[in-house]
Every structure is written in structure tokens, then in C-alpha cells.
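TA notes. Do not distribute before section.
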Amino acid sequence: MSLSDSVELQALWRDQPVVLFFLRRFGCQVCRWMASEISKLEPDLRASGVALVGVGPEEFGLKEFVEGGFLKGSIYVDEQKKSYKDLGFKRYTALSVVPAALGKKVRDAASKANAEGIKGNFSGDLLQSGGMLVVSKGGEKVLLHFIQDSPGDHVPLEDIAKVLDISSKAKAGQMPVCNDSVCTR
């Protein structure tokens, strides 16, 4: 679905609190891993009446993302990237994306994704950053507004549960420790 055609962003939190995960790309390996991590919270979110929603900046890779079952929530596409712009999710430049993509956070997350058998591709808009928005029911309060600085940045599961004041037994996947090209657990 397209946010610009089908749903106003505000409608997503009108009747319930919502966790909105803004992906960089549906084909991004690290984004797929992050979606699978966030999905560990889905049973606790649902039990607490909180919606889990993923938003991507283009339809490219959506079918494969959905078929892979990476996110256990509703998925929307914002082809115009209006919500990305409104929320301050930056676009990398061709020069800034390379060091960001090769940084330790991205290498660590990619290593974890590989360990869990999550693959990705380099198709689509490589320059869009993402983040997360957690909003209370009715939009009365923004509980969390997280903007990625690096493609490997993400919000820990316990931080999401904490801002929503819910308990969760979900355990984050262990991030590997990488020193240059060698990763250990």
C-alpha cells in the first residue's frame, strides 16, 4: 500500500499506540535483520494493543520482503518519501553512503543477518536513511523519534518496550563483535 494514496500517517495511531519502523530499503540485508529483531516484540505489542507497522520508501523489493516474513506487522510504502522528509530521515550522498555502509555498526548487523541466514540485495534507493517513530494512542505524545545516523543504527528492543511501558521477554539477537574483517560471538 502507498501511504500517499491509501492511509494518512496519523490514521495509524488514531485508535492505538504504534511502532513505525522506517526501512531504508526492502532489499537491505541490515533492514531485514532489524525488521526480524523488532518482530520479536510483536506478540507483546499486540497483547498491549500496540500496532507494529513497517514503512518502506519504494515498492522495489516489497514482494520479496513480504514473502520472507521479515516483519510481523502491517507494511506500507511511501513512494513520495513524504513521511521520511517530514520526520527528518536524511538522504546520504554518493560520497557519504560508502563510509557509512562500510562502518562497524553495519558490518556487525550484516554479520548477524548472515548468521541468521538473512540475505539482501543492492537494488533500489541506496541513499535513503530510516528510523523509528513510536506514538501514543491518538497521537497525543511522540514516545520515541529515532533517526539513523548510520545504516546500522537501530533502537534496542528493551528501549522500545520501555517507552511503551510494556514488559517483554523478547531477547535481542547477539550482535557479533567485528574487528576489521574477523567477527566473533
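Switch to the second chain here.
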Amino acid sequence: MKEEKDMGTGDPSFPKAIWPPKALCPSCYRSSSRTSDGALQVDWNEDEVFPFLVNYYGKTLVSSYKETYMESLQGRTQVGAALADDASSSHAARVPIGAALGVAAASCTFGALACFWRTQQKNRKYSYRLHSLKKI
């Protein structure tokens, strides 16, 4: 929000705001104050924010984040925990293996068809030139 204000790149149709607002979750805020440049500084009560998000968005959406967040809090140094931290910080989504394989197969098929089509086009162009040269 501050960056968009400073650069003048904000979209007035989609203004940025602190979320959740105090009206929706007053217990999520420990305190809030304005900085010298007018920006809102919020001290979040994280013990209240997470239950609010679970209630607001649903348990399915939040469960993946909770698992990775709890693992990072426990300080696990295993490779799996590191990968989970990377996934949560990059906003990566979990995709069913069948869907991933379907997309991969479709992508490979499309690539193969495009290559075949291009080869056919080149062959037609080449044979047309040969045919034209024979007439001369």
C-alpha cells in the first residue's frame, strides 16, 4: 500500500487496506498506531488471527499453511521441513499428482503436434520449391 502510494501506481478500483479490518476482528489487533509518514502500524495478535482466518476462509484452505507454519515454528532442520517452508513462502499450491501428470502429458502432446506440423509445413514449402524449379 505504501509503495503504491509513493510510486503513484495504485489502482483506484482496487485500493489496498489492512486486512482483516478491526471491525471484522477486533481481537486480532493488540495495538495500532500511525507512523510519522502516516502509514498504519499494526501489532497483530497472531493467536487470534489464525482462528479468524480459519473461520473466515474455511479449514481446508488454511490447513496447508498451518502445517508448514507449525513445522517452521518447531525448528525442524529436516529436508522435508525446509521444502515445506519454501513452499509456504513462495505461495506454492499443492496439486494432485493426476492433474500434474495430465498437464504434463497434454503439454508434451501439444509440443509434439506443433513440431510435426512445422515439419510438414517445411516439407510442403521445400517440395513446392522443387516442383517450381523443375518447371523452369
